[in-house]
Model the fold of this input.
Amino acid sequence: MVNTGFVLSWIDYLIMIIYFVFVLGIGWALRRYMKDANAFLEAGRAMPAWVAGLAFISTNLGALEVMGMTGSGLKYGMLTTHFYWIGAIPAMVFLAIFMMPFYYGSKARSVPEYLKLRYDEKTRGLNAGLFALMTILASGISMYALAILMEKVLGWNFHLSLVLSAAIVLGYTYLGGLSSAIYNEVLQFFIILIGLLPVVLLSLKDVGGWHGLQQSLAPIVTAKGFAPDAWTTTWKYTGSAASNPMGVEWYGIFAGLGFVLSFGYWCTNFLIVQRAMSAKSTTAARNTPLIGAIPKMFIPFLLIVPGIAALVLLNSPGKNFSLPLNAAGQPIYDYTIIMLLKQYLPAGVLGLGVTALLASFMSGMAGNVSAFNTVWTYDIYQSYIRPTTGDKAGDDKHYLKIGRMATIFGVVLSIAAAYLASLFGNIMDFLQTIFSMVNAPLFAVIFLGMFWKKATGHAAFTGLLLGFAIALLHHGLTYPLGANTLVKGGWIYHLHAYPVEMAQNFWTAIFACSASAILTVVLSYLTVQKKPDEELKGLVYSLTPRLSEEAVPWYKRSVTLAIIVLLMVSILTILFW
Amino acid sequence: MGIDIKIPIGLMFTILGFLLTLYGFFTRLDSTLYERSLGINVNLWSGLLMLLFGLIMLIFGLISRKSKSS
Done:
């Protein structure tokens, strides 16, 4: 049995305590600005672009990402960077340039509300309901992982850790709402960066730098039946699924990850889009994902590279590095980052590293809770339970109260979901499964809605449902090799086996998105567009006046920024081809 | 809204950086402590880096506060 316990000293606890004092302090400082629902749920639309931009990627830099990506680095090597360089970055650029003007300009307060404005009530209702469920699940998984971590690593009681972490997140989101969540995400971003940096540098130094890493990897990887540089290249071995560790061909990566999954996640997930919607102007809202994209493209070096180094350490007996095993005797890859912290960090920076991990959990949870309370208040409560009365001051107070209650409610539900999550294995893969089922069809529907004025409400609604059904069906008919639970798929019939779970997720997303797009287009021709052109102004590309950026100096324009981002990511891709 | 986040970030990193730098300085001769980190005093280096970052954030925060109030 591998000992995962950390021995923390007073300095480590002191660092942790100082950090949490600041986290709660930010919430406390913001409490007096929370006068109405707009301030609480939308941060008053007053965020500077750099704050929104860092919060934008920090929400996603939850613990699932930190632990999952390092684990994936060990499992798949540099191929994991596809999640960033072909996945997230192009999607973020697309969101910024093409979609943000409609999200922000439509004055919708949430993604479901955009669907209501563009399509109809039932499409909004369906999306709002699914989204609320999904955020609670995601937040629950995050909490569960945190509590497990605290139990195994810090030796704290599982149930107590769960309640304590929930109480902290509840504390600052209840006090300061979305602003508090966003400001804390920025704080978290920096602490994660600085907290993990020593591990990256030390692990890389230990294996002899990048060059030493490549050399030490060659025999290990060859023994697994791959080319010597399969772990340190990105596209080189994607000609066939069998020659790369991810088990997917280039077109599967390109379409599944690069297009459907990433665009589905980054462009339609309200959790993410909400950060950009809180920006203070249209230009700031468009620049939010672009500013976020710049640090985002370097995060692989922070998370994936130490994961790859861990593969070398695992195979060097002299290093005394090992991963804990699960009941089936397989290594738990999600523990890679934790074991690396334990391996390299002495008291002091260890406290910083543990704080960084705790921070990443909190940012995932708070993000989910702050998105949940907005959708609950505006898209469920205000739409179906108690509509506005016309008394603006009274309504503002009332919805603020509901938003606050939804925050408590969301945290309590997340705790319940955390216990549910304890039933599943690799959290990252599980999350992908959910995303691919909900987000992929949603992307098809929102994309058509923004760029094709003929798309109708009935068609969109049916498209969403069918896409989800196809995703379920695909998941039920296929399974990844070596799957031992029905959660991984194949619960209807074993029609097709994928080499790895990741490949199955990609294809689930591709099928769901295509089915949804095709059905929406076909049905749009068969049904009548009830919304006149006038109503669709600001919601559909062809009916919206072009955004002029002439007043903005060229170096601050979104297009300039987008070109810089794309150039940078192309250079990275070529360097690590 | 309300607060300028640069100030709390600056304050926190200055405090944490100061703390780690001191800790690193006083433990610099403790070779068993730094055996794991390949003999490098990571506390001192991380501390200095955080101190620098914290101070830069604070300076920017104070500049924008000044320009707002005048």
Summary: The CA atoms of residues 31 and 39 of chain B lie 7 Å apart. Chain B has a mean pLDDT of 87. Chain B is about 70% helix and 0% strand. The interface with chain A takes residues 1-3, 5, 8-9, 11-13, 15-16, 19-20, 23-24, 27, 33-34, 36-38, 40, 42-43, 45-47, 49-50, 53 of chain B (CB under 8 Å).
